[in-house]
């Protein structure tokens, strides 16, 4: 009758066993209440007495176990809460140390039914283990950023870990999102939020450089290259890939030496993605500037070159997209709203 409660490790097993014990004790006590104790032989009475004592001892032991179990649960919950608090404090300290600039949201996605071939090609390239870099180039306003937004949504739904950065002009100074020195700290912080090993590497970098790092080259080496190269195994153990999306590189301030360092580190980062065995992918969008082309072309990127000149052909995707846009919007929203949205996209 005695049940070794202390050996139950799982909550469900313990609960079921305790219920069974209580039912057995209840039935036994019922039978004892129905018996005439004077008619019970002494040997049987001793057996019953021993059984009742064993049941009571097991119940007491169960009570002790419940108390210990609950205490252990409280300790574990407290440990989890304390750990989460520590991580939050670490991330706040890293945010201050990196001097992060608030990012602006990405553009809206492509209108449904447009850019289908382009998005399909890019999606296929990003699933190809041989391809690690996609470069989307084109004139301002041709739709690079909307394509980038659609890629981010597609790959997030596929289970990839997607981190983004967007260089962005403003109508008035200051323009912190044009500073080349904001890229790598922002991406490093996003990596630290998602991957424990990257966070720990960043904490060590902070200890060695209390006052931060201003050189773009040093930022890349300390915040990105060294943590990633030391922890590539992190990405093999997770489903999906790491996709880094950098929008509007041409919007960055093109003053030396930071512009040159930005292009050099972009090239080095894309090279690092090639060495990751398909676990890290990069998507870059920009105007087709000569400097950017010189930096990326040696890496043989999969390239989407957008051009309005293609609209002269009835077979071009741009022509079909424009036709789809106007026929859809003019039916439902009026001319004014459609032209405003076209200008935005």
TrEMBL record:
One Pfam family this sequence matches: NPHP3_N
Domain Nephrocystin 3-like N-terminal positions: 113-287
Keyword vocabulary terms for this entry: Repeat
InterPro entries xrefs: NPHP3-like_N, P-loop_NTPase
Name of the protein in question: Nephrocystin 3-like N-terminal domain-containing protein
Organism, as annotated: Hermanssonia centrifuga
Classification lineage: Eukaryota, Fungi, Dikarya, Basidiomycota, Agaricomycotina
């Amino acid at each position: 009758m005695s049940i070794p409660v202390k050996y139950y490790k799982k909550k469900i097993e313990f609960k079921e066993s305790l219920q069974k014990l209580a039912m057995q004790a209840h039935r036994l006590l019922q039978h004892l209440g129905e018996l005439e104790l004077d008619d019970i032989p002494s040997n049987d009475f001793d057996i019953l007495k021993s059984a009742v004592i064993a049941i009571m001892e097991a119940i007491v032991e169960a009570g002790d176990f419940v108390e210990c179990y609950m205490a252990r649960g409280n300790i574990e919950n407290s440990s989890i809460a304390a750990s989460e608090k520590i991580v939050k404090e670490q991330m706040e300290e890293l945010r201050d140390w990196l001097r992060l600039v608030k990012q602006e949201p990405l553009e809206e996605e492509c209108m449904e039914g447009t850019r289908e071939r382009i998005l399909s090609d890019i999606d296929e390239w990003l699933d190809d283990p041989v391809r690690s870099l996609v470069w989307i180039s084109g004139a301002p306003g041709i739709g690079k950023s909307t394509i980038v937004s659609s890629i981010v949504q597609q790959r997030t739904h596929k289970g990839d870990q997607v981190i983004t950065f967007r260089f962005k002009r403003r109508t008035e100074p200051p323009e912190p999102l044009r500073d080349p020195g904001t890229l790598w700290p922002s991406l490093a912080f996003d990596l630290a939020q998602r991957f424990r090993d990257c966070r720990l590497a960043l904490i060590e970098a902070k200890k060695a450089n209390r006052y931060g790092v201003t050189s773009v080259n040093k930022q890349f080496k300390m915040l990105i290259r060294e943590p990633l190269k030391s922890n590539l195994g992190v990405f093999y153990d997770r489903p999906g890939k790491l996709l880094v999306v950098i929008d509007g590189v041409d919007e960055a301030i093109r003053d030396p030496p930071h512009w040159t360092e930005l292009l050099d580190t972009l090239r080095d980062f894309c090279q690092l993605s090639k060495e990751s065995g398909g676990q890290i992918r990069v998507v870059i969008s920009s105007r087709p500037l000569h400097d950017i082309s010189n930096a990326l072309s040696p890496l043989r990127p999969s390239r989407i070159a957008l051009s309005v000149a293609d609209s002269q052909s009835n077979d071009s995707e741009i022509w079909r997209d424009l036709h789809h846009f106007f026929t859809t919007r003019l039916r439902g929203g009026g001319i004014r709203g459609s032209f405003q949205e076209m200008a935005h996209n």
